[in-house]
Amino acid sequence: xxxxxxxTRRMGLRTAVAAAVTVPLMGTLPxxxxxxxxxxxxxxxxxxxxxxxxxxxxxxxxxPVMRQLLRQEAPTVLGTQEGLYQQLRDxxxxxxxxxxxxxxxxxxxSHDESTAIFYDTRRLAxxxxxxxxxxxxxxxxxxxxxxxxxxxxxxxxxxRDRAVGGRDFYxxxxxxxxxxxxxxxxxxxxxxxxxxxxxxxxxxxxxxxxNAAAHENQAYDILLATGVVDTWDAAxxxxxxxxTFHGYxxxxxxxxxxxxxxxxxxxxxxxxxxxxFEMNGQFPSDHLPVQTTVTLG
Length: 297
Hints:
- A 7-stranded mixed beta sheet has the order 1-6-7-8-9-11-10. A 6-stranded mixed beta sheet has the order 4-5-3-2-13-12.
- It is of the alpha+beta class and 297 residues long.
- Helix content is 22%, strand content 26%.
- Residues 1-37 have low confidence and may be disordered.
- The chain starts with a helix and ends with a strand.
- It is built from 7 helices and 13 strands.
- It has helices spanning 4-9, 15-19, 59-73, 85-95, 181-197, 218-224, 231-234; strands at residues 23-24, 41-47, 77-81, 99-102, 117-120, 124-133, 153-161, 167-175, 204-209, 229-230, 259-263, 268-274, 290-295.
- The longest helix has 17 residues, at 181-197.
């Protein structure tokens, strides 16, 4: 069996893996892995704001706030956007030894932004994963054919859930372009095709910063046309709605929700939250994390 921890942590450094075919990671889980009775998954999507030294919101200032937030929320799955390699290593260290992560940079290396997926290894085991570029040539590293301001990517993984007898499910995590609406719509179409190509008997969760307001953008409509549901709308209980991008300015009640968590039909959505955590006026990012607690169908 391959060393999963070494493989997943090194993804940011291994350009060749990102461009290759799907990477198998996992063999058979021990029978003891299925003993937990808790079937709920705590899912978070969070644009981290890339690590910079610029004040007043440098990574050095934000990291302690990020650490406190993530430790108290302890998501089972965390889809991140904009994280740089060392920043992701910091988060991995701050989350603790029972987390690991999968991802590579959007230019194919370790010095550019990633759409990494963190996961709780006590609950989840990766079976396979891949990174695709949001372009007409999704397996060409750094490709950008739709007029986006930067190359954009989607990272996906198939996880085996130890709590439900080893049942698998998929997670896709992405970051759509902030400039080109055409690129956002084409990116949504690519994600839709990828979801359709998965094993239809397995649930799918989609996390991301889509740079498009829910219910107000064609990219949102394209994705929902695949049959996935918006967990914010489907939740039995919700927090107050705020614009999920705040740019370190005062929060906007009832603002645009550009960070979403989607899931396939049959998912029970217990609660969805836009988390406004801060410490002494310092937010961990220029986005608010979005969280949902689900039981997959």
